[in-house]
Structure formats: C-alpha cells, structure tokens
Amino acid sequence: MAKQEDLFKNVVSHAKEYGFIFPSSEVYDGLSAVYDYAQNGVELKKNIREYWWKSMVQMNENIVGLDAAILMHPTTWKASGHVDAFNDPLIDNKDSKKRYRADVLIEDYAEKLNQKAQKEIEKARTRFGDAFNEQEFVTTNARVMEYKAKERQILERMGRSLGNNDLEDVKALIEELEIACPESGSRNWTDVKQFNLMFGTKLGASAENAMDLYLRPETAQGIFVNFLNVQKSGRMKVPFGIAQTGKAFRNEIVARQFIFRMREFEQMEMQFFVRPGEEMQWYEHWKTTRLNWHLSLGLGKENYRFHDHEKLAHYANAAADIEFNFPFGFKELEGIHSRTDFDLKAHEQYSGRKLQYFDPELNENYVPYVVETSVGLDRMFLAVFATSLKEETLEDGSTRTVLKLPAVLAPTKAAVLPLVKKDGLPEISRKIIEDLKWDFNVAYDEKDAVGRRYRRQDALGTPFCITVDHQTIEDQTVTIRHRDTMKQDRVKIADLKSIIENEVSMKNWLMKM
Ligand code: GAP
C-alpha cells in the first residue's frame, strides 16, 4: 500500500514539475479539487479529446457533434431530476469532524473483500502454476466464495437502501460492518444525510430580477434538449448519436485523489437514440465498443474491468462502469447507461413540446430510448498519465524516469536537438522543425549535454529525439532515438516525417479497436 501511495505522490509531483497540471490559483494556496492544465497537460488533454472525438464522430456516419452552453434554462434540471435527486449520501465522523460519502465507505469495505479474494486466487496461481484453473478455483474454494458472497450481499443491500432512500439502513450497514473513520479510527458516526451536488449561480443584473441557474452537472442535458433540433436539421435517422465534450461542475464533498474527483471537470459524452425495445442490444454494443477504445491505447487489458451497477441512477434501467486500475485501486473511468426515455419524456412534460421521432420504417411516432457513454476527460488523463510513468533501472545501473505515453497522445511528438550549439547545427535543427511543425507538435532543445536532454524528453513523454550532428552536414542524416527502447537509428532527414507518422497517427492506433 505504501508503495502505491508513493507512486501516486510521484504522479502528482511529476505532473507539476514537468508542466502538466498545477493546483488552481496556487498563489492563493489553491482551490480545493480544482486544477489547471499547464503547457504539456493541455496538449495531452487535447489529444485524448481528439482521440475520443475521432473515434465517435468522425468514424461513425450516424454520430454528430454538439457544443451546448454550460448555462441552461433552470427547468432543465427540474425535468432531469437533478434538483430532487442529484444527491450524495453524506455521513460525518463526530470525532475527526471529517465528512464522507456513506456509499464510498461501504464500497471501499466491499473492495477490501474483493482484494482478499484476489489474494487467495494469486496464491493458488503461484502454487498450481500452469495447471491452475481460475474459473474452477473461484467457484469451489470456500474462502474465495465466502469473500465474494459477502461483497455481493453488502453491495446489494446498499443498492437497495439507497434506491429506497432508506438512509437509516445505510447507517446501520456502516455500523454492522464496523467501518471506522480512516482519520480518527472511531466509529462515532452521525446520521446519513442527502446533499445536492449542483453549483448554483445567478443570471441578471439586479438582485430582484436575477434568475437562479445551475452550472451543468453533466453535459448530457444539452444533448437531450437539442435532440429534435439536431435530428431535423441533420436529417438523422434513428439509431443515431450526438456527441459532446465540455465542462461539468459538481460540488463534490469528498474531493480527493488529485484530478480523479474534481469540482470542475470535463466530460466526453455521447447519447445514442434508439428504437424502444432495442436499447439492451445497443447497450451491449456500446459497452464492447467503448472498452475496445480504451484497450486500443495499450495500457494493459488487466487494468480494466466492468462493474455492473446495483444502485441505478434515477434515469437508468441498466448501467455499468468501465473501471480502471488507478494507483489507488480499481475505480470508475467511464459510465455506460441505458437511460430509457426518461430524459426526453421529462423534457416533453416540463416544456410542453413534443420531442418525438417519426420512424418512416415503422410509420409511427415515438420517444426514442437512449444509451449513453460518458467518460471523464480528466480521469482518462489520470489513467494514461499514472500508468505511463515509470522508473527504470538501466543496464549500467543508472535510473531514468520515463513517461511511456501512448505515442498518439504524447504532447510533443519529437524533439530536435543539435549536438552542439555551433557549426551550423542549430540552423539545420531549426530547418527540420520548420518542416515537421506542419504535421506534428515538435520542440527544440539545445541546453545541456545531449544525454540530459534525452532524459528530459523521456520525462515529458516525447516519443522521438532527433539529434543533428556533424555527419548531418555531410550526408543529410540524423539519429532518431526511440523513447521506450532508447534505440537509436541513423535515418535520412527526408524520411523523418513518415517514421514519426507511422507511430503517432490516430488512424494506426484507432485501427487496433
Ligand atoms: N451523464 C452521465 C454522467 O454524468 P457520471 O457517472 O456521473 O454520469 C460520468 O459521470 C463520468 O464523468 C464518470 O465516469 C467520470 O469519469 C466523470 N466524472 C464524474 N464526476 C467527476 C468528478 N467529480 N471529477 C472528475 N470526473 C468526474
């Protein structure tokens, strides 16, 4: 555990030291759970967004984009259920005065049971070697079965109690499980209370006439209220999707774990409108498609798992998370929800306008059902960044810090380094940059010995270093160094573009889906 905590501390400090993420308004000691993306972070974030957009919008004829406003008519949030039901169940520890999400305390307890079961499985795997049959072991080993059954029981009971708004039972469960405050170790808890997560703001110049608004807590509602506008103006036929990326705001009470849980964050959401009755088939389709998108980045299949929801949000009839193995364990990265016709019907009811689709094949009008995919851009950033950050011991015993980002997402694709700052080498380097910068984000660096420059680019995640030396003047060749293998090849300047393109093009990466 201590090792994991150290790893996470390294992630946070590396992000700051190398210009990826700073605490917001740091000169005023920061603002809790709000962060700024710095010069390299903004590039990585943009590349993740583009990777998503390309796979969703550009590659699918029946999905189009949208950029709806953050501020929406306040009735939107009444209709969507957020005013009444977008709550977190909170509990305070009377001794430490710390506030927790009651469901998170219980989920963390359940996760420990899962980890215990996992430990037994790993022990058996080592003991039995190649003969090990995990499926059989999990269904016959008494200890594993007991851990798994207990985990299931706890999550099911919590799901039921939260679904029925039975907060007394949520507290009873915490007491029965003897969950202690992580800070004080005491079990002296208050009652569980619901807390609405939306940020309020006002529109209008004078206090009397001001209209109470909310900062949107999800981007999805901007899509729902525009459903018919897009369908009609784009002549879209069901099934079709609308995709959007943008900021969302939540007054998270337990905001921790760096950019995992923020108060201002960015979502990448897609609502897929389908015929009623076909939603489950599309739900399965999008679960698979979205997992494949994640896997295409090569961060390791073992780092992902599905978690089917016990406790369904007020709008869903099926929901699953794609969880990722963050430095603090498996947690939600993306949600895939079958949202039924809840949102469109609610907006019909509150606005008095029809939000229906005329299906020419069925010759009937209906309110489409919706399958949603929703991934946090900041969480994607954290997943990619934390998994890519490595400390390596080299053959000569020295160590290097390297950010092995998927090359397609790297902020800078290549750094051009003149071996020395004279003899015309900087001029040739600049010329190479002039050529490459039309296609790639490239950097120039002439400061320090070339070995140190390599290390700096490794730490920034730059996939290629191109070194210009005296031989370049003779034969128009350079060395190209690969970040991950540190292998160096001598290549023609004229070939640089295609070598880089081959490793960083979105097409090559997305084709792995
Ligand atoms: N429209 C559906 C929706 O908003 P959600 O599960 O509440 O569903 C979707 O959020 C995704 O947004 C999450 O899977 C997560 O990646 C991201 N997300 C949610 N709250 C967040 C927060 N406070 N900070 C960072 N990302 C967050």
UniProtKB/TrEMBL annotation:
<feature type="binding site">
    <location>
        <begin position="332"/>
        <end position="333"/>
    </location>
    <ligand>
        <name>ATP</name>
    </ligand>
</feature>
<dbReference type="InterPro" id="IPR006195">
    <property type="entry name" value="aa-tRNA-synth_II"/>
</dbReference>
<dbReference type="InterPro" id="IPR033731">
    <property type="entry name" value="GlyRS-like_core"/>
</dbReference>
<protein>
    <recommendedName>
        <fullName>Glycine--tRNA ligase</fullName>
        <ecNumber>6.1.1.14</ecNumber>
    </recommendedName>
</protein>
<feature type="binding site">
    <location>
        <begin position="260"/>
        <end position="265"/>
    </location>
    <ligand>
        <name>ATP</name>
    </ligand>
</feature>
<dbReference type="GO" id="GO:0004820">
    <property type="term" value="F:glycine-tRNA ligase activity"/>
</dbReference>
<feature type="binding site">
    <location>
        <begin position="265"/>
        <end position="269"/>
    </location>
    <ligand>
        <name>substrate</name>
    </ligand>
</feature>
<dbReference type="InterPro" id="IPR002314">
    <property type="entry name" value="aa-tRNA-synt_IIb"/>
</dbReference>
<feature type="coiled-coil region">
    <location>
        <begin position="107"/>
        <end position="134"/>
    </location>
</feature>
<dbReference type="GO" id="GO:1990742">
    <property type="term" value="C:microvesicle"/>
</dbReference>
<feature type="binding site">
    <location>
        <begin position="376"/>
        <end position="379"/>
    </location>
    <ligand>
        <name>ATP</name>
    </ligand>
</feature>
<comment type="subunit">
    <text>Homodimer.</text>
</comment>
<feature type="binding site">
    <location>
        <position position="101"/>
    </location>
    <ligand>
        <name>substrate</name>
    </ligand>
</feature>
<keyword id="KW-0547">Nucleotide-binding</keyword>
<dbReference type="GO" id="GO:0005737">
    <property type="term" value="C:cytoplasm"/>
</dbReference>
<dbReference type="GO" id="GO:0070062">
    <property type="term" value="C:extracellular exosome"/>
</dbReference>
<keyword id="KW-0648">Protein biosynthesis</keyword>
<dbReference type="GO" id="GO:0004081">
    <property type="term" value="F:bis(5'-nucleosyl)-tetraphosphatase (asymmetrical) activity"/>
</dbReference>
<keyword id="KW-0030">Aminoacyl-tRNA synthetase</keyword>
<dbReference type="InterPro" id="IPR004154">
    <property type="entry name" value="Anticodon-bd"/>
</dbReference>
<keyword id="KW-0436">Ligase</keyword>
<keyword id="KW-0963">Cytoplasm</keyword>
<feature type="binding site">
    <location>
        <begin position="372"/>
        <end position="376"/>
    </location>
    <ligand>
        <name>substrate</name>
    </ligand>
</feature>
<dbReference type="GO" id="GO:0006426">
    <property type="term" value="P:glycyl-tRNA aminoacylation"/>
</dbReference>
<dbReference type="GO" id="GO:0015966">
    <property type="term" value="P:diadenosine tetraphosphate biosynthetic process"/>
</dbReference>
<dbReference type="InterPro" id="IPR036621">
    <property type="entry name" value="Anticodon-bd_dom_sf"/>
</dbReference>
<comment type="similarity">
    <text>Belongs to the class-II aminoacyl-tRNA synthetase family.</text>
</comment>
<dbReference type="InterPro" id="IPR045864">
    <property type="entry name" value="aa-tRNA-synth_II/BPL/LPL"/>
</dbReference>
<dbReference type="InterPro" id="IPR002315">
    <property type="entry name" value="tRNA-synt_gly"/>
</dbReference>
<dbReference type="GO" id="GO:0005524">
    <property type="term" value="F:ATP binding"/>
</dbReference>
<dbReference type="InterPro" id="IPR027031">
    <property type="entry name" value="Gly-tRNA_synthase/POLG2"/>
</dbReference>
<feature type="binding site">
    <location>
        <position position="218"/>
    </location>
    <ligand>
        <name>substrate</name>
    </ligand>
</feature>
<feature type="binding site">
    <location>
        <begin position="250"/>
        <end position="252"/>
    </location>
    <ligand>
        <name>ATP</name>
    </ligand>
</feature>
<dbReference type="Pfam" id="PF00587">
    <property type="entry name" value="tRNA-synt_2b"/>
</dbReference>
<dbReference type="InterPro" id="IPR022961">
    <property type="entry name" value="Gly_tRNA_ligase_bac"/>
</dbReference>
<dbReference type="Pfam" id="PF03129">
    <property type="entry name" value="HGTP_anticodon"/>
</dbReference>
<feature type="domain" description="Aminoacyl-transfer RNA synthetases class-II family profile">
    <location>
        <begin position="177"/>
        <end position="418"/>
    </location>
</feature>
<keyword id="KW-0067">ATP-binding</keyword>
<comment type="function">
    <text>Catalyzes the attachment of glycine to tRNA(Gly).</text>
</comment>
<keyword id="KW-0175">Coiled coil</keyword>
